[in-house]
Amino acid sequence: MAKNPERPQLGFRERLGFTLILFRALSTTSLTLLASPLRGKSGAPDLYKHVYYHAIRSINARASARQLQSVFPSTEECYRNFAATNGFPPETVALAFGAKAHWLGDRSAHNILLFFHGGGYIYPATKQFDFLWCLKESVSDDLAVVVLQYSLAPGGQYPLQLRQGVELLRHIIHDADKKASNVILGGDSAGGNLALGVLSHLLHPHSSIQALALSEPLKGVIFLSPWVGFQMTAPSYTRNQQKDLVGVRGLKKSASFFMGEGKTDEYNQPSCAEAEWWQGLKDVVGEIFITAGADELMVDDIEAISEKIKAVHPKTSTLITPGEGHDLPIMDRAIGWKVESLQEKAAKAWLAELQAA
User: Helices marked H in the chain — which ranges?
Assistant: First the structure.
């Protein structure tokens, strides 16, 4: 059987190192639990999340991409398992540059949501399938979702993922024969970064990626806690450091794995783009929705780029949900949290309204 490139086999030293990282996380998380009554407003509002978030931050800060990837099934394995559990035949299309497209729903559906998954460019898609299935079922029978399986870092580095994202959109319009006005882009966390990169490419074709001209604007774009910058100097990176599951050390490592020797630019770090960069965006996409949690590390960066985009695209709406952390429609599922977040409710409401328009 061929080896799965997304799920590396660790050597003895890597396994031992990972075991020590997990043991350290368990130890420090135990101390966090004991000290939790003293956290006041500096930690996550819920005790369960406060403790769980510490464990996630601790592991991501110290583990290598290979160690983390060894734990999870590949995106395709997760998709096939999800399809088997939910009783539908998996439909996967191989795309150029090593990417794959995984379908949820009827391929003849009128509207198509193209979704780029998060995970710092190093994690596969896992709980995204469950969220997207719930989203599709709650909105309309005439909506299908396509999840991009892109190359994970550091095996694949920028601009490969951007090239793969553009190819998915090209495939949907030219090969699947879908109208751009019926296509919605979406992404959570690093997937939001990728979706912004695709919009930038539509406005300013990347020098190493084939241009893609649209005959009409896309129907919409939805961003869930998009990762928009690698500098991490905004006040929220200090203010929310104990409230969120994302940590600065883990983000810096993910950015390094993703970028390699590449240089940051407007395509991979959209926060560095001025408002003028987004001029013409209303000719590329109809409506834009951006959501983030008020307690997440990235919230100040997300609000800043939202204002830049709103300056040139009036049909942009932003929702910052109080008391919530990063990317909850996905991460709540990852930690077994059963209460629907404000972010998820808002995403469903926005998409339903967009479908009805």
Answer: 12-35, 47-62, 65-69, 75-86, 128-139, 160-170, 190-203, 236-239, 248-259, 299-312, 328-334, 342-356
| Position 35 pLDDT exceeds 90 | no
* Edge-to-edge strand list for the sheet holding 285-293: 91-94, 100-104, 143-149, 111-116, 183-188, 218-224, 285-293, 316-321
pLDDT at res. 139? 87
Which stretches of 264-357 are DSSP H helices?
299-312, 328-334, 342-356
The pTM assigned to this predicted structure is 0.96
Q: How far apart are CA 199 and CA 285, in angstroms?
A: 8
CA–CA dist 6, 228 (Å, integer): 24
Neighbours of 274 (CB within 10 A): 10
- pLDDT of residue 2 exceeding 60: no
Q: What pLDDT is attached to residue 38? A: 80
Going by the DSSP 8-state scheme, the letter that residue 120 receives in this structure is: T
Read off the pLDDT band of 36 (50, 70, 90): confident
CA atoms 78, 80, 81, 86: torsion sign:
positive
Q: Is the pLDDT of residue 4 over 70?
A: no
Rounded-to-integer distance, Cα 353 and Cα 335, Å: 29
Task: At 352, list the tokens.
Answer: 């339903």
Distance CA 292, CA 223 (A): 9
What does the DSSP 8-state code read for residue 72? S
